[in-house]
Design goal:
By secondary structure, the chain is an all-alpha fold. The chain contains 13 helices and no strands. The protein folds into 2 domains: 153 residues, no CATH class; 105 residues. Pfam families: T2SSF.
Length: 340
């Protein structure tokens, strides 16, 4: 067998191994989804049984139980829903444990997990698809490049190496691009989010009510923050603290303003106090910051337009202003040549 045939055979065997590994990943994904569905059904059955028992107990309540229900109706209604939602949310927001070992851990580093969160991709199913796509493309692209280009000798090795690198990094480049666009969208939505939150606080709503309304009613204008707020509200309803439920929202943007808003909401939820005046000052600071950013962009555009004007308008101006003079000089030289 020639070296080229041996190289193609080795790539084929590697592709077969990666295909078997991808099949194992899909099988684990199916088992995980089946187990999650079974857990959800079990928790739903327990919740229905608890609600039935509560309905039976409410039919003839004692004096102390009736007073407790009247004093704290939200806590009694929140407990079953939180118990049912907690395991499902915790399972959905964490990648499978087997991704923390072996080759999968190298393909899904801590940086990749943060990028998946910032890109809005499911940490459980998205992480497995991310790892599988990197592994499959890292083997499929070299094979495809060798089959199409048909290089020989060292060229085949170089083509395989570049194909392996591009296939390994292509999913990460896609996730980085998506995360970057979402971060820019968060920066654009943050001033509107602060203004709406201040408006809802001004009409007498609490922090919880304001966040619920922002997540449910303003999702069309807060496309990224609305979904993240809905997820944070679900985590808070399942028993997490405000700081824990806002952790994903704080890591969503690399901008310090989002972290400052989250810290303000956590402090108000923990210690209480008025939040309308700090939000007003923060909104003014955001507007000033955006105005400064716009001025900076305008300054850059002015510098760029100077080069465009030099390349386009200056030749036209030279033709218009100096053209008649050049024509007169040319006529004079022609007449002198004719006379001579």
């Amino acid at each position: 067998m020639t070296p080229r045939q041996l190289f193609i055979l080795s790539l084929g065997l590697a592709a077969l191994g990666v295909a078997l590994w991808a099949a194992a990943l899909l099988w684990r994904l199916w088992r995980s989804a089946r187990a999650s569905a079974h857990i959800g059904q079990t928790l739903q059955a327990r919740e229905q049984a608890a609600l039935a028992q509560k309905a039976a107990a409410l039919a003839t309540p004692s004096g102390a139980a009736r007073d407790q229900q009247l004093l704290n109706p939200l806590a009694s209604a929140r407990a079953p829903a939180g118990a049912a939602a907690g395991p499902e949310l915790a399972t959905g927001l964490q990648p499978p444990a087997w991704l923390d070992s072996g080759v999968a851990r190298a393909l899904l580093a801590e940086e990749d997990r943060k990028l998946l969160d910032q890109a809005g991709i499911s940490p459980r199913n998205g992480s497995m698809l991310y790892v599988a796509s990197r592994a499959v493309l890292a083997v499929a692209l070299p094979l495809l490049a060798v089959a199409v280009l048909q290089p020989g000798g060292m060229k085949a090795l170089m083509v395989g190496f570049f194909g392996f690198g591009i296939g390994l990094m292509a999913p990460k480049w896609y996730v980085q691009n998506r995360a970057s666009r979402r971060r820019e969208q968060v920066v654009e939505e943050l001033p509107l989010f602060v203004d709406l939150l201040r408006l809802l606080q001004g009409v007498g709503l609490s922090i919880d009510q304001s966040l619920q309304i922002l997540a449910s009613e303003f999702g069309s204008v807060l496309r990224v923050l609305g979904g993240e707020l809905a997820l944070a509200n679900q985590l808070y309803a399942s028993g997490r603290s405000r700081e824990q439920s806002f952790q994903r929202l704080a890591n969503l943007s690399a901008d310090d303003d989002m972290t400052a808003v989250v810290s303000l909401l956590v402090q108000v939820d923990r210690h209480g106090g008025a939040v309308q005046e700090p939000l007003k000052q923060f909104s003014m600071r955001l507007r000033e910051k955006r105005q400064a950013a716009f001025k900076e962009k305008i300054g850059k555009i002015t510098v760029k337009m100077t080069g465009v004007m030099v390349l386009t308008l200056l030749p036209a101006l030279l033709v218009i202003t100096a053209g008649p003079g050049f024509m007169a000089v040319i006529r004079s030289l022609s007449k002198m040549g004719g006379n001579g």
